[in-house]
Fold this protein.
Amino acid sequence: MSTPPRRPSATDEVSRFGGLRWELAHLQHTDTASSKAFLWSSLPETVRNSFLRIAWALINTRPLR
């Protein structure tokens, strides 16, 4: 099973792993996607990198069947 490609946008930049804000609208495949984001700066620095890795894995891996 393949996942659909991310929604292209000429004006939005794709979020980067080390960024403190991840825009999630690129992952929603509808024209009416609202702007949702992870704001990593709100987490304590001591746990931030762990949460970044967990979120990246959840977004970028396919579910097991």
Q: What stands out?
A: The chain has a mean pLDDT of 75. The longest strand covers residues 21-23. The first helix runs from residue 45 to 60.
